Amino acid sequence: MSDEADCEHESHPPSRKSGFVSRTKSLAALIAALTAMVIACGSLVKPQDHSVAKKSYEELTKAVEDLDKAEDKNHDDIVALRAFLEGYLKAQEDAPTFPPPPVDAGTRTIPTVRVKSTPPLPSASPKPNIRQVPEFSTVVKSAGK
């Protein structure tokens, strides 16, 4: 069957009209490809506007710095809280224990127990490293390479 199909295909020589159409289509595709290549090369050479990217970068840099400050404050607060709790627990261990005072069933007052004052807070652990954010101009230069 394939022999018959080959024979049929060979029996009809290509007409001049189909050759002209195929050449025209090829030229149109070539022109479109060249136009796209010229536009692509032009966009590479054209200077780019980085103002929006620079504003965004500056805003994000400010947000990172604010986050670093908040992280440092949280770290200091946690260290202080841990030191307070350790001092409080140590003071509780060192405080003498007294039996609770007798309470009259008819009164509604709650007895209070005094404990020793807490010792001074120990020194804080080292602060975490602060992130270093590069300048926008160095980021643009490194992206261009």
Summary of the model, kept short:
It contains 4 helices and no strands.
Structure report:
It is a single chain. The chain has 145 residues and is mainly α. Helices cover 64% and strands 0% of the residues. The chain has helices at residues 2-11, 16-45, 51-94, 136-144. The radius of gyration is 41 Å and the shape is rod-shaped. The relative contact order is 0.09. The model has no long low-confidence stretch (mean pLDDT 77).
Please compute the radius of gyration using only Cα atoms: 41 Å
Please tally the β strands and state the result.
Answer: 0
Shape annotation? rod-shaped
**What is the N-to-C order of secondary-structure elements (H for helix, E for strand)?**
HHHH
Largest sheet: none
Residue share in helices? 55-70%
Contiguous helical run count: 4
Per-chain topology:
Layout: H1 2-11, H2 16-45, H3 51-94, H4 136-144
Considering the chains and any ligands shown, give keywords for the structure:
mainly alpha, 145 residues, single chain, 0% strand
